[in-house]
Amino acid sequence: MLEKMDKFDPEEIIEEFEASTMDAERVQRETLQKILEENGGAEYLRKWGLNGRTDPESFKACVPLVTHNDLESYIERIIDGDDSPILTGKPITTISLSSGTTQGKPKFVPFNDELMQSTMQIFKTSFAFRNREFPVGNGKSLQLIYSSKQFKTKGGLAAGTATTNVYRSSQFKNTMKAMQSSCCSPDEVIFGPDFQQSLYCHLLCGLLYSDEVQVVSSAFAHSIVYSFRTFEQVWEELCTDIREGVLTSRVTAQSIRTAMSKLLKPNPELADKIYKKCLGLSNWYGLIPELFPNAKYIYGIMTGSMEPYVKKLRHYAGGLPLLCADYGSSEGWIGANVNPKLPPELATFAVLPNIGYFEFIPLREFVEDQEQGKIDSGFLPMEPKPVGLTEVTVGEEYEIIVTNFAGLYRYRLGDVVKVKGFHNSTPELQFVCRRNLLLTVNIDKNTEKDLQLAVEAAGKLLADGKLEVVDFTSHVDLSTEPGHYVIFWELSGEASEEVLKECCNLFGSILC
């Protein structure tokens, strides 16, 4: 069992991955069989008349493709305390809050021990390949991670974000301890009640162990960028804390103060060293390797909605490699980054064939028929049939369908991916976009990527004024005719009216 793990052999993990991907089709059939044997007695699967069959052909013939809306009533019953076998053979005891919403309400998805084991398998696999290229010793890791509080549902189930459910698990702690350098920050900082106070103390802990830090990481690129933007504002205060050995009064949470008091001792030499380094930087370029001279790389999710933060992250990273984390969602994991040397923009993820059963809806033919008017707008279009994991074609785009051990069967994840190649017989996927994240005005359809490129292009107009885009979001305003895009962006300073008008004109030319 994972919770009893006391050693970690990266080469053994790689061998297991290579073996499972040599005949991914066979592993997929075995994985589906195991999922259906374990959960065949669940109400949801009985409804579709599988009658004990576990082969892919029967499964696809009987069980329909679904979205979260189709499962919501089942999940609500679980949340309310119904412990009968509804979606899974064994009762679900934990619920994850997805980052998405359903009609404005948080989206809940099941979380169980099997999903936790898949998470650890993904983490171990990617670390093994990462460590082969960028070996780390027995130093420390500055993990800019945060765990919000779990809460109890009406039926008494533990609920929280997927990352919270993972971080609070003993399996996570034991696996991380076995496979990589220890975290700089004590648990009281990670599980602190206030995000800003925890962030400040993460930075402080990193500085206290600055010569030992070998990895700087977070779940998302945005978190790393935000952390070092904050550092720009509080670095002198951090130096004061280190010099005097006393934590700033801005941190009021007693649990954090108590934990930090055990680490802080007056260290004027370290404080002066950090102070001089900060004064010597030009516009904070290369801040991370300057603070942590033994760091090997920076690690986090850098694809999809995180891609806009890569440019600023590179600024802080200087020459340090940016390594993209793995591919998954609150609903479950898909693949591991087994090519860590690829830059974030080119990152691919090899699907692990034994953590779930995967299908792929081809998109090219469907999109082409729509664009050429072959699909009558008065009728619901017929999508192409999904293909199996080993049946995808390099260069084509697909929507992913997931079946896993946590009660999701032929679940439309909503992600669009492109097949970039194969690792043995399992595909290596590149994330393209969320299929439902389209800004649509009249016949114009713009993806998340289109918006990112437009913001990046318009942001270049700010450079002369030494300004930059800190963050942005958007929506479609159909309250007036014609409808239009509304883009909100946060700038690092005040821009002139003339420059802002130029930016708006550029947005219009790119998005319309």
**What distance lies between the first and last C-alpha atoms, to the nearest angstrom?**
55 Å
Over all CA atoms, what is the radius of gyration? 24 Å
Q: Structural class of the helix and strand makeup?
A: alpha+beta
Uncertain segments: 1-5, 366-380, 440-444
Q: How many distinct beta strands?
A: 21
Global mean pLDDT:
83
Cα shape: globular
How many H/I helices?
Answer: 18
Give the biggest beta sheet: 8 strands, antiparallel
* Amount of helix: 25-40%
Strand content: 15-25%
Adjacency order of strands in the biggest sheet: 10-11-12-17-16-15-13-14
GO molecular function: acid-amino acid ligase activity
InterPro entries: GH3, GH3_C, GH3_M
Domain GH3 C-terminal: 449-507
Family: Belongs to the IAA-amido conjugating enzyme family.
Structure description:
The chain has 512 residues and is of the alpha+beta class. Among the domains are: 186 residues, no CATH class; 73 residues, Alpha-Beta Plaits, CATH 3.30.70. An eight-stranded antiparallel sheet has the order 10-11-12-17-16-15-13-14. A hairpin with a 2-residue loop joins β16 and β17. α6 packs parallel to α8 and α17 runs antiparallel to α18. The chain is globular, with a radius of gyration of 24 Å. The N terminus is likely disordered.
